[in-house]
Amino acid sequence: MAAKDQSNSVSGLEQKLQVALVGVQALLQPAQSYVLGGVSYTGQVVAQMVTAFLAAFAAHTDAQRQEKTTLAQRRLIQPQAKAFLKVLQEFAAAQWGADSQELTKLGFTPRKKAAPLSGEKLVLRTARTNATRKARSTRGSRQRAAIHGQIPDSVQIHVDGADPAPPQGGAKT
């Protein structure tokens, strides 16, 4: 079942009020008094009351349309606003420092300082780093600088671009 678009639909009560207004204007004399629910009204007052009720319904419908329009506008500019705030935060962090209290004046949370590691955690971190380096065969900058490749004495190049096969000894039988 598809959702009904309520922006153009008129409720049953609103339809009844519209029909009643047409009937009141056609049938009741503006200056003559009528008793409705034990209260005396003139035809003009009855028409004004029905018109006021319809105005409230129309105002609600207009507000719903306005809400849809403004919501669409908000959704359209939301990515731009987020991007602007990100740039503003980066500017503020560069201007006053990422852990500065001036960031709070702009509505941003300063970066927390890292808690100092306990001796046990430092040993664990070092052990993990060394294990990772060993597993990946990674080297430090000084270790890398000490490694030099050996240049071969001669290089063979084939026309077809394939690597040359090493010479096979002996004849085929």
Could you give the topology of this structure?
Layout: H1 12-27, E1 33-36, E2 39-42, H2 43-96, H3 102-105, H4 119-136, H5 141-146
Antiparallel strand pairs: 1-2
Your description of this structure?
This protein is mainly alpha-helical. The protein has 5 helices and 2 strands, in the order H-E-E-H-H-H-H. It has a two-stranded antiparallel sheet with strand order 1-2. A hairpin with a 2-residue loop joins strand 1 and strand 2 (39-42). The model has no long low-confidence stretch (mean pLDDT 83).
Spans with pLDDT under 50 lasting ≥5 residues?
A: none
Bin the helical content: 55-70%
Percent of residues in beta strands:
under 5%
- Report the sheet with the most strands, covering strand number, pairing sense and barrel closure: 2 strands, antiparallel
User: What is the element string, with H for helices and E for strands?
Assistant: HEEHHHH
Radius of gyration: 42 Å
DSSP, total strands:
2
- Look at the structure and give the mean pLDDT: 83
Number of H/I helices: 5
- Helix/strand class: mainly alpha
Strand order of the largest sheet: 1-2
What is the CA–CA distance across the termini?
83 Å
Net shape: elongated
